[in-house]
Amino acid sequence: MFGPEGAGRNPYRSITVVSLTRTAPRVLPGFSLSLGVTLLFVTLIILLPLSGLMWQLAQLSPADYIKVMTSRRVLVALKVTLSAAALATLINAVFGLLLAWVLVRYRFWGRGTLDALVDIPFALPTAVAGIALVALYDKSGWIGGMLAEFDIKIAYTWWGIVIAMVFTSVPFAVRAIQPAIEELDHDEEAAALTLGASGLQRFVRVILRPLLPAILTGVALSFVRSLGEFGAVIFIAGNLPFKTEIASLLILIRLDEFDYPAAAAIAGSLLGLSLLLLIVVNLVQTRLYRYLRTEG
Description:
Layout: H1 31-58, H2 62-69, H3 72-105, H4 111-118, H5 120-123, H6 126-137, H7 142-148, H8 158-182, H9 186-194, H10 199-227, H11 231-237, H12 247-256, H13 260-295
């Protein structure tokens, strides 16, 4: 083998390596069965109730729909709901990012407790949250009493609605941003510091840019959650028509009046707005991911 006739040859040339690939066993049933069960679940839990709403909405003619949605009471309720949800979402975007950053980047005593407290609005019944907020911000409450000395009123005002929406929707912002912060590359931040980038440049170019898709997700979920909030808001809002009445409460009032088409019109409008927002956010996210990959 190593004689003159075999000089210069690879002694392992004739050896054939056979690799045996083993297919991992399926944890779940086959694709067809899994897809069928999934579609059945989605149909029963999501599509069926939505189809009932669409059926009720179809009972209205275009003229009747416009008449319902352009009534002064509906327009004021929508204005109160949308404006409060927008401000609550803005607050959650800022403080949700800050809270997520603290939970990920710092280690301190009580961090686990603080992390668990973020999920309290998920588990707490919204009616209980509303009662707690009223007890706190009413003029006879702890914070409300102190603010009353400065002639500032929170409970039964538009500001009370904002606070209730912030309370119930802030976990959506935190939990959407937190995993993205965990995935940030520390080496890029160190490299930017080494290259002489200022603190603002490091924040905008190295930290904020990769977080934008997650922030958009948190903002969208927070806004949609605030838009449909009911239990916590009705306790602290006072529910005064043309002042602190929200769209969700107006839907309930129309149902109590057996005006199902009008209730469906308001509910369908809120649903359409939420779906439109989520679609726009998904499209913007897709473009952002492509841009970040290209720039990266």
